[in-house]
Q: What sequence folds into this?
């Protein structure tokens, strides 16, 4: 909205031409999202506490201290994040850009799915929401529609192709199969972040790190000059996603203020599914799906730990980890929550640097 308004006024006030720059609007989106969460966060927390009573149900098979320390903390804090992201994106983004609408649509749709899941958990006083298969089906439908729109927005056959880091000329055209592949990336990303969200501040900081990284990637990918210099594939229009990434970063910082130990609120599936889905959609749009697995490697590790645990138990009756996902394994080994969280943050930073390094190593 501000983008169009300021461009209309730029003829009379030349200084307003600064709104043409994505970098400026990215900074504006970051600050706006942060302020929205700061201003409305306390009200949202208070309202959720009143409505939820006992707060988010805690897993009975989880670490015993959670039943004491985290009992009564409200969930659905993702509403704060979504409010900040949506407000900042609509204010600072170029709303004629299809990628902005697709990524924002995936974020809000996945957030809605997570919100309903959180609602069922709270109203039924159980840590289980609605059917996993039904949940997956809705996520897959949203993701496939999003990938189809991304394919239509780009140039064929490149828009349906898979690119590889380190190899500037290796491109594999997947055709219509790219819809399934892209949907897998988006759904997998959403659920990986969801699995990681188990300790105060554990998921939100790696999400912010990944979002900042993909903000850089989206900006460079959408800039013909930088893309040519770095020898990465140019995707017209994706630079605008940097504004969205800035909004995620700002909303995440605001949420972390309330989610820092001891957490005043949990993001719940409302936030984790939405943020993970957003990262997946950005990766698909910018043609950096494989790089997402590097930058979001922490989320991948958490997911793999669950898969390994389930497969091992079904095949041998034995568990590889004391508890899955991986962060609970370290809890059961006696690591302090703050130790786990900070060390996982460090891992996220290292993986993000490794992912960004792929932009030049070609």
A:
């Amino acid at each position: 909205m501000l983008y169009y308004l300021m461009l209309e006024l730029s003829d009379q006030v030349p200084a307003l031409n600064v709104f043409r720059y994505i970098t400026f609007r990215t900074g504006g989106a970051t600050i706006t999202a942060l302020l929205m969460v700061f201003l409305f966060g306390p009200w949202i927390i208070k309202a959720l506490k009143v409505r939820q009573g006992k707060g988010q149900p805690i897993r009975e098979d989880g670490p015993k201290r959670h039943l004491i320390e985290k009992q009564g903390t409200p969930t659905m804090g993702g509403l704060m994040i979504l409010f900040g992201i949506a407000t900042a994106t609509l204010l600072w983004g170029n709303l004629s850009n299809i990628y902005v609408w697709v990524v924002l649509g995936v974020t809000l749709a996945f957030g809605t799915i997570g919100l309903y899941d959180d609602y069922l958990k709270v109203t039924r006083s159980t840590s289980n929401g609605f059917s996993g298969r039904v949940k997956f089906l809705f996520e897959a439908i949203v993701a496939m529609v999003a990938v189809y729109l991304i394919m239509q927005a780009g140039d064929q056959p490149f828009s349906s192709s898979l690119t590889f880091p380190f190899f500037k000329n290796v491109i594999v055209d997947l055709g219509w199969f790219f819809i399934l592949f892209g949907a897998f990336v988006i759904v997998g990303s959403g659920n990986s972040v969801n699995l990681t969200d188990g300790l105060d501040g554990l998921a939100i900081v790696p999400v912010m790190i990944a979002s900042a990284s993909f903000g850089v990637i989206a900006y460079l990918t959408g800039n013909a000059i930088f893309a040519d210099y770095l020898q990465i594939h140019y995707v017209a229009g994706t630079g605008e996603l940097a504004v969205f990434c800035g909004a995620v970063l700002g909303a995440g910082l605001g949420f972390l203020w309330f989610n820092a130990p001891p957490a005043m609120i949990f993001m719940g599936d409302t936030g984790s599914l939405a943020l993970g889905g957003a990262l997946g959609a950005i990766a698909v749009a910018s043609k950096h799906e494989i790089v997402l697995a590097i930058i979001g490697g922490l989320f991948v590790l958490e997911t793999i730990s669950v898969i390994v645990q389930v497969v091992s138990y079904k095949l041998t009756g034995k568990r590889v980890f004391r508890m899955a996902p991986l962060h609970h394994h370290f809890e059961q080994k006696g690591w302090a929550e703050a130790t786990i969280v900070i060390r996982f943050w460090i891992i996220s930073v290292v993986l993000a640097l490794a992912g960004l390094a792929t932009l030049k190593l070609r």
